[in-house]
């Protein structure tokens, strides 16, 4: 059993009711406690959740516990539980005082938890080794915690979340009259997530370790082999003359997300570049941009435009009907000796109706045309499409 320290100031059984009518209860003892840290849960935005645990022999009756916590602890998040007891009251101060009624004389277990704002951070450091149709992704966790004390043999939990996702942290409610023995303090999370909770995921590191205040450490996080491929993308609406952007895409087939962080890319053991890994949920695809590429020559051309106007009568009025036809050609030329996967997309007006397109797009919505193409080495190809817009304007007589 792990050793821990309880600083006890026992004031012996001295407080008795001076007035039987005031309803005051005799306090068996007042004890200042400083429990050892059992686990540390670190969020990427600087939030740290601390859980302290221990045990002590207590006699039946009313006890006061003075909670010794660090100055940077958020006292509003404080949760203190003792087995076989019920809460009488809490006095919030620099060192909060809990009055608790212990229902039986025995060795009782303690749990103390709280939050520390800006108490530490962590980030993954990735190494991506590109293979033919896959990649080996190795992640180490870079951890820095400053809780104004060195921590020994603690369990570390690392919370991953999408960027800008802020967890909702609520003040932990105090136990009601229900006896604390109905709960095992070793099973109470006290606000710390233990798995996926909506967009949160917790990495529980296998081995306990020491944390030195203000010092950074690196610990292994995971190693995944995942499908990966190279893709070129061209948005012809915003970049009619290119260039195409080159991307590395990988499918997260692991049972955990890939948190956002920097990734060093290697090919055949040689360093290639450093990219930014976006937060990627399990089952999703990660897209890592390599930037503009000269492997393709691209252009979008307006091949034809015509407009006709007609005045038509209806009921007691007339209207001008305007019909406009646009024809575009997208030209693609490969400058490389390798086969290329190319995604092409173009935007059309909401009111447009496509009247001709070749080849058929792989995806078409009210405003988007998208093609997934395989471009052979040095190949030249063309995409041609036309759309029509009809507008009707009422003419006053």
From TrEMBL:
<protein>
    <recommendedName>
        <fullName>DUF4139 domain-containing protein</fullName>
    </recommendedName>
</protein>
<feature type="domain" description="DUF4139">
    <location>
        <begin position="112"/>
        <end position="389"/>
    </location>
</feature>
<dbReference type="Pfam" id="PF13598">
    <property type="entry name" value="DUF4139"/>
</dbReference>
<dbReference type="InterPro" id="IPR037291">
    <property type="entry name" value="DUF4139"/>
</dbReference>
């Amino acid at each position: 059993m792990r050793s821990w320290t309880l600083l006890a100031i026992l004031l012996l059984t001295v407080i008795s009711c001076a007035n039987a009518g005031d309803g005051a209860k005799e306090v068996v003892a007042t004890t200042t406690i400083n429990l050892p840290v059992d686990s540390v849960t670190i969020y990427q935005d600087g939030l740290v959740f601390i859980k302290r645990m221990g045990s002590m022999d207590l006699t039946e009756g009313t006890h006061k516990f003075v909670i010794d916590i660090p100055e940077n602890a958020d006292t509003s998040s404080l949760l203190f539980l003792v087995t076989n007891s019920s809460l009488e009251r809490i006095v919030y101060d620099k060192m909060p005082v809990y009055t608790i009624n212990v229902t039986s004389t025995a060795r009782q277990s303690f749990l103390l938890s709280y939050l520390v704002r800006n108490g530490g951070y962590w980030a993954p450091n990735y190494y991506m080794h590109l293979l033919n149709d896959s990649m080996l992704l190795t992640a180490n966790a870079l951890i820095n915690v400053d809780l104004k004390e060195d921590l020994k043999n603690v369990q570390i939990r690392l919370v991953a979340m999408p960027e800008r996702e802020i967890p909702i942290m609520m003040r932990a409610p105090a136990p009601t009259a229900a006896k604390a023995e109905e709960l095992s303090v070793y099973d109470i999370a006290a606000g710390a997530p233990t798995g996926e909770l909506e967009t949160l995921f917790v990495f529980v590191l296998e081995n306990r370790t020491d944390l030195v205040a203000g010092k950074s450490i690196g610990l292994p996080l995971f190693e995944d082999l995942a499908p990966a491929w190279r893709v070129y993308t061209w948005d012809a609406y915003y970049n009619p003359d290119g260039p195409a952007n080159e991307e590395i895409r990988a499918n997260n087939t692991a049972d955990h997300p890939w948190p956002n962080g920097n990734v060093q890319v290697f090919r055949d053991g040689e360093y290639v570049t450093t990219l930014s890994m976006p937060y990627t949920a399990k089952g999703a695809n990660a897209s890592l941009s390599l930037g503009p590429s000269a492997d393709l020559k691209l252009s979008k051309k307006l091949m034809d435009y015509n407009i006709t106007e007609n005045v038509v009568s209806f009921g007691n009025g007339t209207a001008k009907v305007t019909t406009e036809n646009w024809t575009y050609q997208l030209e693609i030329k490969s400058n490389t000796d390798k086969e290329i996967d190319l995604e092409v997309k173009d935007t059309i007006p909401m009111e447009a109706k496509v009247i001709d397109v070749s080849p058929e797009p792989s995806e078409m919505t009210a405003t988007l045309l998208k093609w997934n193409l395989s471009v052979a080495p040095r190949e030249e190809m063309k995409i041609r499409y036309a759309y029509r817009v009809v507008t009707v304007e009422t003419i006053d007589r």
